[in-house]
Write a structure and sequence with these properties.
Elements lengths: L1 H6 L2 H4 L17 E10 L5 E4 L5 H16 L6 E4 L9 E6 L4 H9 L2 H5 L6 E5 L3 E6 L2 H14 L1 E3 L2 E11 L5 E7 L8 H13 L4 E6 L20 H13 L3 E6 L6 H4 L21 H17 L4 E3 L22 H18 L3 E5 L1 H5 L12 E5 L8 H9 L3 E4 L12 H17 L4 E6 L13 H12 L6 H13 L5 H15 L2 H5 L5 H8 L2 H22 L6 H48 L1
Length: about 600
């Protein structure tokens, strides 16, 4: 319960938010000055595109109009800079390097703030008469627009923005998520696009698709067959969509371990370390010809300059055909030789390699045998304050990315009690020690028990942490996120997620499906968990009924939450049944002992 109380700590301190200079934006901007002003949008308000604007800037302008339509407002007229004389009653979007007006705005602003903007930063100012957003790049301009949309308020059919001056830029180069689509639920294209747009809304720029076998290989058609595998055309459609949102899609394609879905197929069993293994046979040259054919198609489909080759959790090496290699080399060398060969294949197709760092951390001598330009992804999923691996990878002098997790695997709802601390602590430590990025993972071990839509909250918090790690305020984030996601619902949605996180920490997938009379269930009954969970489930059910009456946004999410409540209620009923049967059995046993004692007494007399 301690972690649960920590997660709800914001309830005690939320009144302090009004005293801070934080604004209702995710992620929180770097520098904000609030002042007394209000820009009210009218039917005559225009969106002005600075000189040199192209399709990317037009797309950004259209996002403003799309947002206004959701607020039941008519779209604004979009005009070019050379068509107007004044910025009065206008929203101006301009690139500093191309638009004279944007350059003048930048020159009049704080110089050190403008210099800090770099590639993805932006400058935004909202006054009584004008809103201006200027940036060095289209991406920065888009992010400024995402901030503006979050600042828009609606009151009595009026849409307005209060007075702000904002300088904002990210601390980390790679900000995003990795999405396990290989071992459980897999989105349809429209849902993938929804994920991409959500990431971009919160200024994430990287979407890593974790692919074991769910890609349609033309040269190996049996791989991913009847598994919902994505085609090259699917990937290209998603990339075209993502490009508009300034999101790069990077494949994580396992090239060592976690290949059981391929290696179990009759055609490829000879490429396994042993029958039923998840790890490749490193002895056979056929393995590398096979990998070359797969990587040719993967790299052809994905346009990003990076390829993540996986490489994690390869503990099966030496258990089968590669056992003979241990007579010649140590484990570090065996791994390094394989990684180097995969690296060479990726380089042949023009890709920079990213790989997981767990096996390197376990066998540090491997580092001296690997190319210096490999980017290492350090995944750590505990909720501790310090992560020794981060300092280890910093000392190597290599580029590295930190990767926390949502803790959504093997359970019916993500365990955000652990996940939020893991995300915040690991990203903060990574940024402090020179990490170039933060990629937060979701995993679907054993089929993915929880709905993918429960990940939105974690994705947004990961975005908050990755943009500006040192200024993360969970209390403020919760208030902002749930207000944006469900509307003005007070603390209700936050409490529901906190309660479900508490249940998610305790109720695992196996608990839902295991036999009601196993010993573990009796242990839970004895420790009083049954009453606690029954109370908690009914509390969530009552809160959810209330939330349904007042939620104004994303009402479809309420059905998913209700399903988890029903799952939890069913689990509690299963424990109650087990408790009843156990009590009945105990009573019979006690009666039997009493009868035996009486019989013994009769015989003795």
């Amino acid at each position: 319960m301690g972690k649960f109380l920590t997660l709800l700590g914001w309830l005690i301190t939320s009144t302090l938010l009004a005293q801070s200079n934080m604004i209702p934006v995710i992620p929180q901007p770097k520098r904000v000055v609030s002042f007394d002003a209000r820009f009210t949008l009218t039917p005559s308000t225009q969106i002005i595109l600075g000189e040199g604007s192209g399709s990317a800037e037009e797309f950004t302008a259209q996002k403003i109009n799309q947002h206004l339509q959701t607020a039941s407002r008519s779209p604004l007229k979009i005009v070019k800079e050379n068509e107007i004389k004044t910025l009065n009653n206008a929203i101006f979007l301009g690139l500093i390097s191309k638009s004279p007006r944007a350059k003048k705005i930048a020159d009049n602003a704080d110089f050190t703030g403008i210099m800090a903007l770099q590639q993805e930063g932006y400058y935004l100012q909202s006054t009584d008469s004008t809103i201006v957003i200027v940036a060095n790049t289209s991406q920065g301009l888009f992010y400024g627009c995402m901030t503006l949309l979050q600042l828009m308020k609606k009151e009595q059919n009026k849409v307005y923005v209060n007075g702000y001056t904002i300088y904002d830029w990210p601390d980390l180069q790679f900000r995003g998520i990795s999405d396990d689509i290989s071992r459980g639920q897999i989105s349809k294209l429209e849902h993938f696009k929804k994920i991409i747009a959500f990431l971009a809304k919160y200024k994430m720029n990287t979407y890593m698709l974790y692919i074991e076998d769910v890609f349609q290989f033309k040269n190996h058609p049996k791989i991913g067959q009847n598994r919902g595998a994505l085609s090259k055309e699917d990937i290209q459609e998603l990339q075209t969509f993502a490009r508009s949102y300034h999101v790069q899609i990077i494949p994580i394609f396992e090239t060592f371990g976690h290949m059981e879905n391929i290696l179990m197929l009759p055609e490829y069993r000879n490429l396994a370390e042993f029958p039923g293994a998840s790890t490749l046979n490193l002895v056979s040259e056929e393995t590398y010809s096979f990998l070359d054919e797969l990587l040719f198609e993967i790299t052809d489909a994905f346009s990003a300059p990076y390829l993540h080759i996986g490489g994690d959790e390869t503990q099966q090496i030496g258990w089968g055909v590669s056992k003979a290699l241990l007579d010649q080399f140590d484990l570090a060398t065996i791994h390094a030789r394989h990684y180097k060969r995969v690296y060479d294949l990726a380089k042949n197709y023009g890709k920079q390699v990213i790989m997981y760092g767990d096996m390197i951390y376990a066998h540090p001598n491997m580092l001296f045998q690997l190319p210096d330009d490999i980017i290492i992804m350090d995944w750590q999923y505990g909720d501790q304050e310090e992560y020794p691996s981060v300092e280890f990878f910093e000392k190597t002098g290599r580029k590295f990315i930190v990767s926390p997790a949502l803790w959504n695997w093997l359970r019916i709802f993500p365990n955000y009690n652990v996940a939020l601390a893991n995300i915040k602590n690991l990203i903060q430590q990574g940024a402090k020690h020179g990490a170039v990025g933060a990629i937060t993972a979701n995993w679907n071990d054993l089929g993915g028990a929880d709905f993918r839509d429960f990940n939105w909250y974690g994705y947004a918090f990961a975005a908050e942490c990755a943009w500006s790690p040192e200024t993360v305020d969970l209390n403020h984030f919760n208030q902002t996120f749930f207000s944006q996601f469900y509307g003005k619902t007070g603390h209700m949605a936050e409490v529901i997620y906190a309660y479900l996180s508490d249940l998610g920490e305790q109720i695992l997938l196996k608990d839902i499906f295991n036999h009601p009379f196993i010993r573990q269930n009796y242990e839970k009954i004895k420790t009083g968990d049954l009453l606690k969970w029954k109370t908690r489930v009914e509390q969530v059910a009552a809160l959810l009924d209330s939330l349904k009456k007042i939620a104004s946004h994303n009402r479809d999410q309420l059905d998913y939450l209700e399903f988890v409540v029903d799952q939890s209620r069913w689990y509690v009923q299963k424990l109650e049944t087990a408790a009843l049967v156990n009590r009945f059995h105990q009573e019979l046993f006690e009666q039997k002992n009493d009868m035996v004692n009486r019989l013994i007494g009769s015989c003795s007399s």
